[in-house]
Amino acid sequence: MKISASGFLIFFIALLNMGCSFSPKQPVLHDFGLPSFVSTNKVIPTDGVGITVDAPTWLWDNRLRYRLLYAPQTRIGFYALDLWVAPPPELFEQLLISSVKIKNYALIISLKSFEQQFEEPNQSRVVMSFLVEAYSVDKKTKIGVQAFYLEQAAMPANAAGAINGFANLTRQAADKIQIWLVGLSDKSIKKL
Q: Which helix (H) or strand (E) holds 23?
């Protein structure tokens, strides 16, 4: 069956008149998900103790970043159709506030890296590094400092893999911070 150009044009116009529209895809917004133990109806109190996450200017952006390690490594790419609902430092701070139980410390966290890295076109990992400073509740005495570096394979090697990987890494980060804080508490008890 042969379709003429005018027949195709009439069919296309008919589709448009029937309510079909062809619009460009809109970006999808993502976050790290809900902490597994937090109810959506409850707010977790942090006993007035603060958690602050800071980061370099380039991480205060809601675009999902990646780096091709097999190309010029100074070039950063961004996914066009997948965005964070807020900048990663803000999302990380909110996740920590809702999941880390701190009683004796104020935390200042410096997010250093947060990107997807491609070793090959079909092989990538997500990388996150940060520094945690723990202070007394009055924020006058520094109790401890700890650097953390986390990474995991992003499967599949695309935006969906990166989003799932970062959701997992941020939960791991919350757990590792909690374990470190318990260790600080144990050390202070032993000093007494």
A: none
Dist. CA 115–CA 105, nearest whole Å: 29
CB contact at 8 A, 5 and 58: no
Give me the CATH code for the 26-191 domain, please. Answer: 3.40.50.10610
Return all residues near 82 (Cβ < 8 A) that are at least 6 apart: 27, 28, 30, 64, 159, 160, 163
- The two tokens of residue 66 are 């990646």
Contact between 135 and 105 (Cβ < 8 Å): yes
Q: How far is residue 4's CA from residue 36's CA, in Å, rounded to a whole number?
A: 58
Domain range summary for the chain, segments of one domain joined by +: 26-191
Model confidence at 188, in pLDDT bands (50, 70, 90)? low
Task: Specify whether the CB–CB gap between 124 and 116 falls below 8 A.
Answer: yes
pLDDT (tens digit, 9 = 90+) per residue, 157-175? Answer: 999 999 999 999 999 999 9
> Pick from 25, 165, 156: which is nearest to 82 by CA?
25
Q: How far is 64 from 77, CA to CA, in rounded Å?
A: 8
Q: Using CA atoms, how far apart are residues 45 and 52, in angstroms rounded to an integer?
A: 15
